[in-house]
Structure formats: structure tokens, C-alpha cells
Amino acid sequence: MNTRDKIMDVALHMFSERGYEAVSIRDICGEVGIKESTLYYHFKNKKDILDSLIKKFTSHIEGLLAHVDEISEMPGKKGRKNEDISLQVTDSYMIDSYLFDPFCNLMLRLMMIEQFHNEEIRALYEKTLFTDPYEIQLNIFKKLGAAGIIPEKDVEWIVKEYYSYMTMLTFKYLLNGDLTEERKKAYYDEVHNLMTRRFMA
Amino acid sequence: MNTRDKIMDVALHMFSERGYEAVSIRDICGEVGIKESTLYYHFKNKKDILDSLIKKFTSHIEGLLAHVDEISEMPGKKGRKNEDISLQVTDSYMIDSYLFDPFCNLMLRLMMIEQFHNEEIRALYEKTLFTDPYEIQLNIFKKLGAAGIIPEKDVEWIVKEYYSYMTMLTFKYLLNGDLTEERKKAYYDEVHNLMTRRFMA
Amino acid sequence: MNTRDKIMDVALHMFSERGYEAVSIRDICGEVGIKESTLYYHFKNKKDILDSLIKKFTSHIEGLLAHVDEISEMPGKKGRKNEDISLQVTDSYMIDSYLFDPFCNLMLRLMMIEQFHNEEIRALYEKTLFTDPYEIQLNIFKKLGAAGIIPEKDVEWIVKEYYSYMTMLTFKYLLNGDLTEERKKAYYDEVHNLMTRRFMA
Amino acid sequence: MNTRDKIMDVALHMFSERGYEAVSIRDICGEVGIKESTLYYHFKNKKDILDSLIKKFTSHIEGLLAHVDEISEMPGKKGRKNEDISLQVTDSYMIDSYLFDPFCNLMLRLMMIEQFHNEEIRALYEKTLFTDPYEIQLNIFKKLGAAGIIPEKDVEWIVKEYYSYMTMLTFKYLLNGDLTEERKKAYYDEVHNLMTRRFMA
DNA sequence: GATGAATGAGTGTTCATTCAT
DNA sequence: GATGAATGAACACTCATTCAT
């Protein structure tokens, strides 16, 4: 990893734990192993580090959203089970590449901290944690409804229920304390639990 | 309001917006209208302000929990409708005196920010936002189950569903940006929506 | 002298020698014998020191101008010699209380340095070194003309000659290198020289 | 213009406006359009830029002085008017090639700023603004005296008067704020004014 | 000729805190 | 109860300079 990337990595870890303002340039440089003046060769100022992180995150998210669109547009193979699609998408999108992804998870924490006094971050926070996930899940369940796998009239509430549960779990297990393997497992178990009850029953 | 209370009030507003570390003694004193040296007559140091806020909050919460216990122990009057109890409790506990209460709401925001690097606060955060609410709701629905108002076997999932929904709404509307009247109304409407579907159908 | 005045005094000496930007807060504090943080109790920032110096200077100058007005309005006593008035005024105003005054002399040097990139200072510089002195001397010589001591038609050029000479001497002896006793004497001798030739011949 | 000359040009403009210390290598390189490290290919260090400027200036001045000597040694043609010589010399030396010359004018400003804390520069400043001009003019007027064009006994005071006037005008119009066309014209008009009165009357 | 990457020392300024009054 | 004056440590950031490429 080059110096610039190392700085961003260390900064994100620190920002997401203590907040942007509470982390000093000295803290970051000490951990990276460079002098403070060197950091200013790579970044215009402290804010520039944060901005670069946000830019990287939005690019990352755009990539994920594009990928999700792609998957969900694929014609379902015959005989596919209903939970198949949703699980697949949820797995790949929500969990592996997003909530469990170290970079994304830390960015969500950072946004959780900074959203209260930074409207730009707040908008991104609302989009990535509330708006986008709901949209994605609504799309999936609408298709399941159209395919006759679930009753069309139930779609609205099934989505709400599913979405609420996933959101609650995210805050409870993935955006609370360190992202330990225990918490990841607890999260995963509860998701599995929900799936089983909903679609296996 | 006396000076000490004014300091705590101003400090809470600032801490909950920008985080404990990012707020300076100068900031607080400037807003309160006293000199920095004066603050040290009322508080031992900066940390002491935060500690006092947490102490005040835990006392407040203890009072609420005691009150909730009291209400739920009350023998339900004959002829009462099922949703009556839950709505009443939810209203008084979750909403008016807790989530909508300015002091509590700001404390939750502060805890949301500080939990990532302060284990004591994290524990309190988990307790007040996840553990306690679940316990309370579980108690209520268990009683409804025992009373035959809802099927006992459904209690577990009804609680989970209800609790998830309330938790999601809390993060989406009450712990996101400023606590405006619009957001309070949006929250209330969605709660009402859920109630209607669940218990009126 | 209190701390604030000491800071201003030291700052002026340094600013007038090396220029505002080239003098550091550390330099000033080292000389005054205080910590840098203490300086910020007395001044908002570095610029505030400069502004305070300028304010003090303009007040000082206003006082001098008022005093000069007062003197020159006084009805000349009978039998007074022509050079009497001008010498007296020149002495008291231009020399003792202004050009030779340590504070004013250092301020002129500071203004000489800063005028090239600070329009506010440039205007003050032009006023105090060129405009005001000319006005004052014009007034004096007009009175001498009106009193028939010098030919009225010569007033314009006598003023110009006198004023040019004084201005040149100021830059040559008083705003060049250290203000040593030698340079003060050289200045004084040349002024005396001019007076003698002009009015004694 | 090659890079080295560009650096010197930019540096002079900046030094003469804000002073040597207040201008950074970054400032200069930014304006020239090179990286800071590149500057060190052309100059040993920051001081070296200043030294090179001073060297260039002293060479320039030596050339001018030699030229002035040459002109004034030329036997005056019969029938020449007295003001002819002085005007010609003043024009070519003092004005076009010196005071109005962009390089020289900026150097004078730089010297005006730096003289207070740099004895080498102070000596050069005194020489070029006070000593040399006086010598030159004294030579000219001496010749006019010897030629019987002006009374020999008046030479001393005519020189003093003329020299004072020119010096005052230089500081008032040419070393005060930007060297605009307005100020150049004002300077020129006043010089013409003096000439007319002195030698045309 | 020019640059990318680095650095130690220094810049102005803010920090939480103390203490005599 | 409150303040004026002070402080050492830390803050984000800029300085002139070096050196391998």
C-alpha cells in the first residue's frame, strides 16, 4: 500500500472510532509512521482526507448499486425458489460487500458520528442506511409478488417487516462496538432465523 | 436555571451535535455567558460535565423503567382493548418521556457518537436502545398472550416484528439530523400505521 | 508597564525592523518573557497587535494635529520674529513629538515597510508623511505671507522648498538605519542650516 | 525568458511588495509554474535569489553611473541652454533608466523594506537614493556655475533645493503604492514644474 | 532541467486547567 | 460565585531544504 492509501486507511479507522475532529494529524501520522509535513504532501489539509474517504465510499456504493441492479434484472431461472433470489442478493450486497466489508462498515460508523453536524454526510447516511436498502428490497419483493411467489397484496408489509428487521440488526450488531466475529455471527444467525421463519414455514 | 444546569444544558446540546472531544470549554462558556475559569467552580473538569450528564440520564431512565413496571403491573381493567395497553405504554414511555423528550433524545445522540470509543457509554447505549425496549415489549406481549388476546405461540415473532419496526423508526426519524416537528410527525404516523395494521385488522 | 503594553512595545520594535510577517509570535513572547498562550489572552490574534498599534498611532497623531491647530491659531505676539513661529511649531510638532518621538518614528518605519501591500497602511503613510506636513507648513507660511513677513507671491514656492527639504531630511536621517544620536544631530544641523539661510539671510 | 530569469522576476515582484521573509519559495514557484525542488536546481537557496537580484542591481547601477559620467564629460555644445543638460541627464538617468525602470523601481522598494535589518542593503539604499544622486547633480550644477550660467556662489543651495525636491518627489510618487501611470505623470508634472520655475523664469 | 517524496523546525492559534483575587 | 492572568501541551499547517530518480 502506498503512503496515500495508508493515510486514508489509518484515518478511517481513527475517524470511525473517535470522530473526525477528535483525531489529530499527529495521531494519524504516528500510526502511519510518517512526519506530519509528509502528510501534507499527499493531502491538502485534514478535511481533504475526509473528503477523499467520502468520495471513495460513494464510488464504492455506486458500484454496488450497479451490481445489484444487474443481478436483479437477470431473468430468474425456472424452478428457482423465492428465497433464493433475495438471499443471494442480500448476501452479496448487504452483507459481504457492504455491511461486513471493513471499509464500508467503518464509513457507516464515521457517518453515524458525523451526520449530526454535517448535512452532506447526513444525506449520504440516510441514503445508504435507509433509502437505498428499502428501495432494493422493495424491488425484489415486488418481483416475487409479480411472480406469484408471495401474495401481491402482502408485498408492502413484507418489505416493511423485512427491512425493519434488517435495519435493526444492522444497528444492533454491526454498528455497535467493535465488529467482532461474535457480532457478525449473531447478526448472521438472526438473519437466517428470519429467513427460515418467513420463507420456510 | 442556575449556572450549573445551564452549563449542562449547553454542553449536552453541543456534545450531542459535535461529540465530546470536539466541543471546547471555551465553546460551552461562550454560549452560557461565563468565563472559562468560572466553569471550574461548578465542575471539576471537562470529563465531570459528561459524567454528570450520564448520571442524570441513568437516573432519568431508572425513573422511567420504574414507572413502566408500575403501569404494566396494574391489573388490566375489564373490557380493555388489546392495543390499549401497548399504545399507552409506548406513548408514555417510548415516545413522550423518552424518545421525544429533549434531554433523552440528545443523550441518545451523544451516546451514538461516543459509544465507539467508550465502553461504559456503549453498554448504556445498548441497554437503553436495544435491551430495555425489547424487555419491556416482550413483557407486554407476553401478558397479551397469557390473556389470550394474541396466540401465545405468536408472541415471540410479534414482539420481534414490533420491536424491529420501532427500533428502525427511532434511528430513521429520531436519531437522524435535527429532531424537527416534521420528523416527529413522520415517526408518529408510521407508528400509528403499524398499530392499525397489526391490531385493528 | 503592564503585559499588554509590553507586548505592543516589543512588537513595534520588531515589526518596524523586520516587518510584520517576518516577526513571529514566538519572537515577541520570548522578548516580553511570556508564553505564547498568554499573548492570546491579551490579543485576539497577531493582526490584532498590529491594529492596536495603528489605532494608538492615529490617536497620537490626532492629538498632535489638534495641538498644532491650537498653536497656530494663537495670535502672534507683537514683535515676534517670523522664524519664531515656524521654528517653534516645527520643533514641537515635527521633531520632538513626532519624528524624534520613539513611538512615532518606529510607526513610520513600520508603515514604510508595510505600505506596499496594505492599502490602509499606505493611506495612513501618505497622510502622515506627505499630506499632513505639507498642509501644516502651508498654513504657517500663508500666515507669514498675510502678515507681510514674506512676499505673498513667494509663499507657494517657499513652502514647496521648505517642505521638500524637510521631507528629504526625514527619509535620509530619520527613516534610514537606526535612529542614532548622530543621525538626529545631523538632521537637526541641516534643519538649522536651512533656517539660517532662508530666514536669517 | 528562461526559468532562472523567470524566478528572479517573480521573486523581485513579490519581495518588493511583501518583503523577503514574508515571501515563500512556494509562493514564487507557484507563480513561476515549477515545483519547489526545481528552484533548487537554479538557486542554491532562498538567500541566493536575493543576492542575485542585488548583484544584478549593482551591475545595472554601475552601468548607469558610467553612462552619466560619459554624458556629463561631453563638452557642451555652444549655445546650449542651461536646463538642456540637466533635463537631459535627469531624464535619461533619474527617470527613464532608473526611477521609472521597472527593475530598478522594484529594487528600490525592496531595499526600502529590507534596509532596516540588513546593513549591506541599507548601505546600497543610502548610496543609490541619497549619495549618488546628490553627487551627480552637484557635478552638473558645478559645471553650470563654472560656465557662468548660474552664479557660482548659489550652486550649493540650488543643488540642495533641486536635490531635495527630486528626492521628495521620488518617495512621494515613485516609492509609494503601485507605480501607476497616474503617479508617474504626477511625478513628471512636478519635475517639469520645478524646471520651469527655476530655469525658465 | 525537472520532479515526487520526504523531513525537522517553525508558523499562528487553541486546548483544558490553575490560582490568586 | 465569578474573574483576570497565566501556562504547557497540543493543534492544523507551512517553512526551506534534500535527494533519488
Structural overview:
The structure is a homotetramer of 201-residue chains. Chain A is mostly helical. Chain A has one domain (54-199). Chain A is built from nine helices and no strands. Chain A has helices at 3-18, 25-32, 36-42, 46-73, 82-99, 102-114, 119-146, 155-174, 181-200. The longest helix of chain A has 28 residues, at 46-73. Chain A is elongated and about 65 Å long. Chain A starts with a helix and ends with a helix. In chain A, 32% of the residues are buried. Chains A and B meet through helix 1, helix 6, helix 7 and helix 8 of A and helix 1, helix 6, helix 7 and helix 8 of B. The structure holds a DNA duplex (21 and 21 nucleotides).
Strand fraction band of chain A? under 5%
Low-pLDDT segments of chain A: none
Quickly give the structural class of chain A. Answer: mainly alpha
Q: Give a count of the beta strands of chain A, DSSP E runs of length 2 or more.
A: 0
Measured by residues with Cβ under 8 Å of the partner chain's Cβ, the largest interface is:
A-B, 33 and 33 residues
How widely separated are the two ends of chain A? 48 Å
Major sheet summary line of chain A: none
Radius of gyration over C-alpha positions of chain A, nearest whole angstrom: 19 Å
Total individual domains of chain A? 1
What global shape of chain A is seen?
elongated
SSE ordering of chain A: HHHHHHHHH
Helical content of chain A stands at over 70%
Provide mean pLDDT of chain A, rounded. Answer: 88
What's the oligomerization state? Answer: homotetramer
Q: What is the overall number of helices of chain A?
A: 9
